[in-house]
């Protein structure tokens, strides 16, 4: 199949390759033709500019020699006869402006002396054409007139023409006629100065823009001479040059040719749009596309005949499919029967899971209530003895403890209900030390019973945390009781509780010196119904419940080895940030029970 398609694709590929070769050849021919025409046009425009320059070049020399124009310089003030003479000379020669300046650069006589924008009295000593003439040279300068606002070519000569200059004669040539002629010819032509600034253009919007970004030094030099007034001189395009004859302006590509004018470093540029320069390429690709489409129509027609023959074979196969469909209908009915049986089995499994959950919760209730019940029995037994001795005060205190335990058991059952629905416990800002002391009071009878020492170290200042106090007490009771059970078999059994504050969290560590937890059992220690104790001593729910509570409260519970012996449990709870630090005295609570 793939080989046949490759063979079918060979003719259009060949036609495209041939078209590409022809397009390349014709493109080269088009470029050569455009470059030849551009060279001819550039030569013509170059001669036009040179002719305009030569036409007026003599004029400042003549004025510099004529005393009628330079009389104002000798008198040091404007003279009406000099103004009228310059006005008459400008009308006869066709020059835009004629004026005479003294050695300080101040205009003393001008051909436009009677107009609102008269140059008389204005100083142009900063212009390069003036400084060149004062050195005895011929001044040549293109700029925007500061008074008239019109661009032009300024030509200057010193006066007298021999000896030390005492003034300068200037003629301004209007170049707008050149631009008008270029625009009327419908061609894209512009001229740039030695700095690459476009000052003449058949496209007015290109005027006073640059071929490239100007260096800072060049911009400063142009600004000091006020050559282009306040024009921003922005680049005409930010697109990179793709070739020696390529130029992109405002997103359009042009065929670009240029030549030197041999005047002030000027260059003439001639542009032809690429689409127009390569107009012979369009017919080549149109013909190629037409041939490819014709070839595709022929191939598709032949393929249509094959498909019609194939459809006849498919009709024959459809009869066989009908028989197969009938068999599938029977199989679908059997499948639905099996799915119905599976659904019933799933429902039975769901009922079994609910019963297992009820059993687990019941075991959890028994496990969590057994600890306060044990404490309750101890307080009841103690109360009876104190009543027999007549110590009613101590008996009353025990009754208060019994009442407190009763209230705790009621709250505990409510919390166990919440254990099945995480996140319902109310989070409060509490002092963690209160929860530690409450848990210590509950487990104290167990430590007295086992003879294990309980040492509690905590800061003297409050440990403010955000948590549910009763659920934290549940975790602490479980950890302390487990520690007492683990250390009970030791000669000097000891359980230590200390606190580490780490900024955003508070870590409560419960360490015992019991046999510890083997490495291979630490990952299972928090699983429900898993316990390292004998079946008579524990049900394996305490640590599972504690882990669940710690995670619900945004904390964590972890186990590691105690050094040199025993186990270490770390309860992490979120802390409330405060300015207090842990560099405070530590309260040490120690209870020793005689064996």
UniProtKB/TrEMBL annotation:
Ranges of residues in domain Histidine kinase: 364-577
EC number(s) reported in the record: 2.7.13.3
A single GO molecular function term of this UniProt record: phosphorelay sensor kinase activity
EC top class named in words: transferase
Compartments, as annotated in UniProt: Cell membrane
Coiled coil: 307-341
Chain ranges passing through the membrane: 282-302
Catalysis performed (reactions): ATP + protein L-histidine = ADP + protein N-phospho-L-histidine
Membrane topology note: Multi-pass membrane protein
Alphabetical list of InterPro entries matching this protein: dCache_1, HATPase_C_sf, HATPase_dom, His_kinase_dom, HisK_dim/P_dom, HisK_dim/P_sf, Sensor-like_sf, Sig_transdc_His_kin-like_C
SMART domains according to UniProt: HATPase_c, HisKA
Record-level GO cellular component terms: plasma membrane
Entry keyword set: ATP-binding, Cell membrane, Coiled coil, Kinase, Membrane, Nucleotide-binding, Phosphoprotein, Transferase, Transmembrane, Transmembrane helix, Two-component regulatory system
PANTHER family assigned: C4-DICARBOXYLATE TRANSPORT SENSOR PROTEIN DCTB, SENSOR HISTIDINE KINASE
Descriptive protein name: histidine kinase
Gene source species: Roseibium alexandrii (strain DSM 17067 / NCIMB 14079 / DFL-11)
């Amino acid at each position: 199949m793939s080989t046949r398609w490759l063979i079918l694709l060979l003719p259009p590929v060949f036609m495209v390759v041939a078209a590409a070769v022809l397009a390349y050849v014709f493109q080269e021919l088009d470029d050569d033709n455009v470059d030849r025409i551009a060279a001819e046009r550039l030569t013509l425009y170059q001669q036009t500019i040179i002719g305009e320059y030569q036409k007026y070049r003599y004029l400042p020399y003549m004025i510099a020699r004529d005393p009628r124009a330079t009389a104002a310089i000798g008198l040091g003030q404007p003279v009406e006869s000099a103004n009228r003479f310059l006005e008459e000379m400008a009308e006869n020669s066709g020059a835009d402006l004629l004026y005479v300046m003294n050695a300080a650069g101040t205009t003393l006589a001008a051909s436009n002396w009677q107009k609102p924008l008269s140059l008389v009295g204005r100083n142009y000593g900063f212009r390069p054409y003036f400084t060149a003439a004062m050195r005895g040279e011929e001044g040549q300068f293109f700029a925007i007139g500061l008074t008239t606002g019109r661009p032009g070519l300024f030509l200057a000569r010193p006066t007298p023409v021999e000896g030390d200059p005492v003034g300068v004669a200037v003629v301004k040539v209007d170049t707008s006629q050149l631009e008008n002629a270029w625009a009327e010819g419908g061609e894209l032509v512009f001229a740039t100065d030695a700095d690459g600034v476009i000052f003449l253009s058949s496209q007015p919007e290109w005027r006073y823009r640059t071929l490239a970004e100007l260096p800072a030094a060049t911009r400063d030099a142009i600004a000091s001479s006020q050559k282009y007034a306040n024009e921003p001189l922005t680049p005409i395009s930010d697109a990179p040059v793709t070739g020696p004859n390529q130029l992109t302006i405002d997103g359009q590509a042009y065929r670009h040719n240029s030549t030197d004018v041999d005047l002030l470093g000027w260059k003439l540029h001639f542009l032809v749009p690429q689409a127009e320069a390569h107009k012979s390429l369009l017919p080549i690709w149109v013909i190629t596309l037409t041939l490819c489409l014709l070839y595709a129509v022929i191939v598709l027609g032949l393929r249509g005949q094959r498909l019609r023959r194939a459809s006849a074979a498919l009709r024959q196969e459809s009869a066989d499919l009908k028989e197969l469909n009938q068999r599938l209908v029977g199989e679908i009915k059997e499948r639905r029967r099996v799915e119905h049986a599976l659904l019933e089995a799933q429902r039975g499994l769901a009922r079994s899971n609910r019963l297992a959950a009820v059993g687990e919760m019941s075991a959890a209730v028994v496990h969590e209530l057994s600890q306060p019940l044990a404490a309750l029995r101890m307080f009841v037994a103690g109360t009876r003895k104190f009543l027999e001795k007549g110590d009613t005060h101590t008996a009353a205190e025990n009754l208060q403890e019994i009442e407190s335990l009763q209230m705790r058991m009621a709250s505990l059952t409510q919390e166990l209900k919440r254990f099945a629905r995480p996140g319902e416990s109310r989070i409060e800002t509490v002092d963690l030390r209160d929860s530690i002391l409450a848990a210590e009071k509950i487990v104290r009878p167990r430590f007295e019973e086992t003879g294990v020492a309980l040492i509690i170290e905590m800061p003297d200042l409050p440990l403010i945390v955000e948590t549910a106090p009763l659920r934290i007490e549940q975790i602490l009771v479980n950890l302390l009781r487990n520690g007492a059970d683990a250390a009970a078999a030791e000669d000097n059994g000891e359980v230590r509780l200390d606190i580490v504050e780490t900024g955003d969290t508070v870590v409560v560590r419960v360490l015992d010196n019991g046999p510890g937890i083997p490495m291979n059992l630490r990952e299972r220690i928090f699983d429900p119904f898993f316990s390292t104790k004998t079946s008579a001593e524990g049900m394996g729910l305490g640590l599972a419940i504690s882990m669940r509570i710690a995670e619900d409260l945004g904390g964590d519970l972890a186990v590691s080895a105690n050094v040199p012996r025993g186990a270490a449990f770390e309860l992490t709870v979120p802390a409330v940030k405060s300015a207090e630090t842990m560099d405070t005295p530590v309260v040490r609570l120690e209870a020793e029970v005689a064996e």
